[in-house]
Amino acid sequence: LACTFEPAVDLAGLMCPPDSTSDQCFTPAQVQTISDLYNGPRDDAGRQVYPGKMLGSEPQWAGYYIPWQGNDMAPGKLTGVAGDHMNYLFYEVDPGIAVPDLRDIDYEPDTDAVIPEFHWFHWDINDFHSGAGELMKSITDANDPDLHRFVRRGGKLILYHGLMDTLIVATDTIDYYQQVVDTTFAGSVAEAQANARLYLAPGMGHCAGGPGLNNWDKLAPLVEWVENGHAPDSIIATHETDGLVDNERPLCTYPQQAHYIGPAEGADEPGNWVASNFECRIR
């Protein structure tokens, strides 16, 4: 979260010569695309529609967003969410049915059919702030930070988010947790942690996967907290390759982070990647 990266500056030494392209360099259009992904989409008035992608999420871009030969020029979000979200999860009245092949940008939708057809690019980004999706957002959005009733009933909440998640960015979850702290617990993180805790998983993708810590029992810590009163100060998570654990360390209660305390000069040695070689503390 503390890293900075400016594509136009940091990739300057990897730019293609003018008017040329190569797999070994970046064109100005490619650098602009990278910047756009980091900055997030905006409507015509410049209003933010969704936060930008996080640093470290880049390995998942090709699967979700970037058309290339490896996905037959059809990234996952184009062939799935692009149609279903618009038809079922945004507009109060369904616009119709997605065209047979969302990859075919030359296909002319039959908008006069009994069930009209639409293409993915018919969604107007300006509708996000126009009120067109308010009913569905009121149903699907989980963004109320007032948990007073939940707390009065003795509720316990564990939130987790992979920092490599490129579909739902972790910054939104961090912002929501901070809103909960401010709204429900008068700004006291210590008081909030009596009922609600957040854990961030470095290198984990959307709910799972990724090269980082992505495997732990999601239910056991909550049961232990609710039924036995033992709040999880940290959660031990692992990463496996071919069924063998090759990384283990604690997921710390936000805003703490895991710090290496193992053998000197050994932080980069996989043999030292065990939970006992890390401790949770605020950076």
Sheet with most strands: strand arrangement:
1-2
Which segments are poorly predicted (pLDDT under 50) over 5 or more consecutive residues? none
Percentage of residues assigned to helices:
25-40%
Annotation field: number of helices: 11
Main sheet: strands, sense, barrel: 2 strands, parallel
Morphology call: globular
Describe this structure in words.
This protein has helices at about 5-10, 30-40, 60-65, 75-80, 80-90, 125-130, 135-140, 150, 170-185, 190, 220-230; strands at about 95-100, 115-120, 155-160, 195-200, 235-240, 245-250, 255-260, 280. It is of the alpha/beta class. The chain folds into 2 domains: about 70-135, no CATH class; about 150-280, no CATH class. Strand 5 and strand 6 (about 245-250) form a beta hairpin. It is about 25% helix and about 15% strand. The protein has 11 helices and 8 strands. The longest helix is centred in the middle third of the chain and has 15 residues, at about 170-185.
